[in-house]
Design goal:
By secondary structure, the protein is α/β, with parallel strands linked by helices. The chain has 11 helices and 8 strands.
Length: 252
Amino acid sequence: MIVKKYVNSKIKIMIISVSSIKGGVGKSTGVIFLSQALANLKPKSKILVIDLDPNNNLTDYYLRDEDTKLISSKSIAHYLEGTSKLKELIIPSPFDRISVIPTTPKLARVSLSVSYDSTLSQRFRKDLRELDYDYIFIDTPPALTLELTLGIYGADVVVSPIAPNRWIIQGYDEIEKLVNDNNKVLKGSKIKLYVLKSLVSEKKSQILDDLGIKTLNSFIPKLESIANANNSAKPLNEKTAIFFENAIKEII
């Protein structure tokens, strides 16, 4: 398990970003159900999920019944603008021990306005580690944007979902390059990169193993039950949840 200790703090924290520059590979789905799998496996842990994707699918799942005005007032965009601290933006979710820092589509415009700030990535990485949580998951956008840069630079671990599609696999190369570039400038512990076979059949999962990309042993199948749970903001049944539990065991 990856654990980091910080001066003047007893907090042990692990920050996991789920990142791909291609859509449709189960990135947000991964954050949602990996975080729930971890909550089941670590019943005493405190978990925070942060939505850095302007598409805000993660926010919509976890805060489906919250007032949109509240969500807007707690958007991660306020942190990027410098008007709020991260801890001021946290909303408890209906899922036990999982809290959320949400976003709205406005994030895309805000990120453009602050993209000049060369110190933002360093501040974000530092501020994440001052939060009182055991695990933090970050959902990043499927594009080479400031939000993706923040999510990767802030992480201890980056999980990149891939499927047997040549463009998705080429997209993974970009994630790998970002991780490697950040590791060149980071002092101390480096970012670890894991590849998760996502939304594939077991047969196609084996095809990915033959492409020379080192992946986790576990994989996430393409199942209607996963899509239905995501769309309805419901947890997975036990039979399906096991795929995410197997994956998170390898990651942590």
